[in-house]
Structure formats: structure tokens, C-alpha cells
Design brief:
The protein is of the alpha+beta class. It has a single domain, classed as Jelly Rolls (Sandwich). 18% of the residues lie in helices and 38% in strands. The protein is built from five helices and 13 strands. The strands form two sheets. Strands 4, 5, 7, 8, 9, 10 and 12 form a seven-stranded antiparallel sheet that branches. The two termini are 16 Å apart.
């Protein structure tokens, strides 16, 4: 499964809290920024409580992504060949309508590892774009678990900025690579 949409109680309140807590960064048009998990206790208490009640492992990263109008994040995977970041819980905040996350099939040999990510972070990019094939797509319009160790892209064809929070959880060789290993999904 490449993604799973969740029905989250008080989602509109979470969005409102996140909009209010990100105003400065969005006004500065930062492409991405990280925020420590414990800071969400005051930035978005509703989200903080919801996640803490359901998480099965520690939160390791909280990153906001601001995708400009008529822009895209090209096909890539998060992490490098030897250490892929398997999944994220993406929380849409604003400018989400008609934007897409697209997943692709890609031969394992068709990757280049390097410092291609934001701020030169290690990531894998597709070596030959003609070898990938679209396998699925979704509009992330509600909190959604997504696979980030499968080649994916983000497309924003709209006139608005797309703002999203991605929460990442601890993982290792044995656990944390499936949605239900990091989060209690019952009734969602």
C-alpha cells in the first residue's frame, strides 16, 4: 500500500493551529523547515495530543514543505540506497486542492545516491527518468500515511502555495516500515 488516508478527529482545528504557527515561515517563502516534535505541544496541541495517544514509536522528524505555485518536486526517494526513509504521516495545511503526490515504479539500478535533497541532504534521485512508470497518485487532502521509500514526486499546478507537514517515525531493520508498526490506525 502506497498511502492510507485517515479520518482524524478535529482535523480542521489541527489545520487552523498549524496555519497560525507557520505564518512567519510562509511569509518568508521558506521551501522547507524542521520543527522539534516537543514544540508542537504549544504550536498545535490538538495534533500533539492525537499523535502521542497513537504513536507506537518515537517521532524522529517533523518537516514542513512549502511547494510554490506551478512547481514540482521531481521523482526521488527519501534517503539513500542503504538507508531509505520508509514512510511519513503527511498533514495537509493549505493550498492542497488539485495538487498531487505521484508514485512510480523504478528499476533498483536506476538510482544515483548523493546530496540531492534540501540543504544537500542525502537522497536518491532517478538516474534515467524515461525508465520510471507511474503506478499511483493521490491528492493529500486529509492526514495520510505515505510511502517515501518508493519513487515519488509532488506536483503543484495551481496558483497557490501548497503547505504540508510530514511527520517521520523511528524505524530500523526489523520494524517501523509499515504504517501500523508506527501508529495505531484503529477507527481511523
Amino acid at each position: 500500500m502506497l498511502y492510507r488516508k485517515l479520518t482524524v478527529p478535529y482535523f480542521s482545528k489541527i489545520q487552523e493551529e498549524l496555519i497560525n504557527s507557520t505564518k512567519l515561515n510562509t511569509l518568508e517563502f521558506k521551501r522547507y523547515w524542521d520543527t522539534a516534535w516537543q514544540d508542537f505541544e504549544s504550536l498545535s496541541p490538538t495534533l500533539y495530543k492525537f499523535i502521542n495517544l497513537r504513536k507506537k514509536t518515537a517521532v524522529r522528524l517533523c518537516r514542513f514543505y512549502l511547494t510554490p505555485p506551478h512547481d514540482l518536486l521531481p521523482p526521488h526517494v527519501d534517503g539513500v540506497s542503504t538507508n531509505r526513509s520508509p514512510l511519513g504521516l503527511n498533514i495537509p495545511i493549505s493550498g492542497i486542492e488539485n495538487t498531487k503526490m505521484i508514485w512510480y515504479d523504478n528499476p533498483e539500478y536506476n538510482f544515483n545516491d548523493g546530496n540531492y535533497g534540501f540543504n544537500n541532504m542525502p537522497s536518491s534521485r532517478v538516474a534515467d527518468i524515461t525508465l520510471i512508470n507511474k503506478i499511483n497518485e493521490a491528492v493529500i487532502d486529509v492526514p495520510t500515511f505515505v510511502r517515501t521509500d518508493v519513487v515519488h514526486a509532488v506536483v503543484n499546478p495551481t496558483d497557490d502555495y501548497r503547505l504540508l507537514l510530514s511527520i517521520r517515525f523511528n524505524f530500523n531493520e526489523k520494524t517501523g516500515k509499515n504504517f501500523d508498526e508506527v501508529f495505531d490506525l484503529a477507527d481511523l
